[in-house]
Amino acid sequence: xxxxxxxxxxxxxxxxxxxxxxxxxxxxxxxxxxxxxxxxxxxxxxxxxxxxxxxxxxxxxxxxxxxxxxxxxxxxxxxxxxxxxxxxxxxxxxxxxxxxxxxxxxxxxxxxxxxxxxxxxxxxxxxxxxxxxxxxxxxxxxxxxxxxxxxxxxxxxxxxxxxxxxxxxxxxxxxxxxxxxxxxxxxxxxxxxxxxxxxxxxxxxxxxxxxxxxxxxxxxxxxxxxxxxxxxxxxxxxxxxx
Length: 242
Description:
4 helices; 5-stranded antiparallel sheet
């Protein structure tokens, strides 16, 4: 008796109990011995074959392989593709609120015009910001605004948006001025409570607060980096621009 292992290209053969005769490939006859030892061997082969067939049936079918392309170091997130190389659509955690704003064409450009104070941190911690608890990592900067509100910011983002001054207070806070040639941000006001999954943590917005994204993401419907600015603080520190 023979059995084929699905998807493996293997064909297994095993005998039935008892003696028998057959032919070699060259046409000569052969006889199959019988007896207790042969019977045990045949049973072993038979059950081994059945086990392999069942095992192969549990294996995933060919053609459904998932490949993951790791981050290349340029800041792009990992992407998943199927066997044909087609990317899977990855759900953005902020899709619902972004869909609402995109469909209403609610984005407008704004630039920060007020100075901030900032100082570097050298250990992992949490910042109790207006919008929620945010993670701050070694090498990041703790920033302080006009209302003494605090938030974390990556060093490269801080230097991209602000120019450092020589003014440093007794606690190590340095004054930073917004770069005059900075492109600013895109912002949209939301008239109901909402939540944003930012790179620093999960933030909560009140009715009238603003959701903000980088100007570099102006043509990106679902950017990876968005955040919330309090309504009062937005009015005090940002100006609309074209």
